[in-house]
Amino acid sequence: MDEHAEDRLTALESVWYEIIEAVNAGRTSGLLCPECNAPDGLQVEERQGRTIVTCPNCKRVVEVAIATA
Ligand SMILES: [Zn+2]
User: Fold this and answer.
1) Looking at residue 2, what is its pLDDT?
2) Which residue of 22, 23, 57, 67 has the fewest C-beta atoms within 10 A of its own C-beta?
3) How far is the CA of 61 from the centre of ligand 1 (A)?
4) In this structure, are residues 18 and 2 in contact, taking their beta carbons and an 8 Å threshold?
5) Count of beta carbons in the 10 Å neighbourhood of residue 42
6) How far is the CA of 41 from the centre of ligand 1 (A)?
7) What residue ranges do the domains of the chain occupy?
């Protein structure tokens, strides 16, 4: 087991926080990958009720948990 996995996940969520917030707010275009800043931007798609953000450049995949207040 990797006891640092959770820390890395927190760091990842931190760097993606603005993207996740934007997607949560319904903004899915004009987003840039915070890790590689690929000019092509991010792809946002829904899969089985979940929202998945993918970067075509660095292949990062981030699942956005839609806030249900
Ligand atoms: Zn990227």
Assistant:
1) 66
2) 67
3) 9
4) no
5) 23
6) 8
7) 5-64
pLDDT of residue 1: 55
Q: What is the model's pLDDT at position 33?
A: 96
Write out pLDDT tens, residues 36-54: 999 989 999 988 888 999 9
Give the integer Cα–Cα distance in Å for 42 and 2: 29
Q: What CA–CA distance (Å, rounded) separates 14 from 39? A: 21
User: Distance, CA 35 to ligand 1 centroid (Å)?
Assistant: 5
Length of the chain in terms of residues written? 69
* CA–centroid distance, residue 30 to ligand 1 (Å): 13
Ligand 1 mean position, distance from CA 21 (Å): 17
Mean pLDDT of the chain: 86
Distance CA 46, CA 63 (A): 10
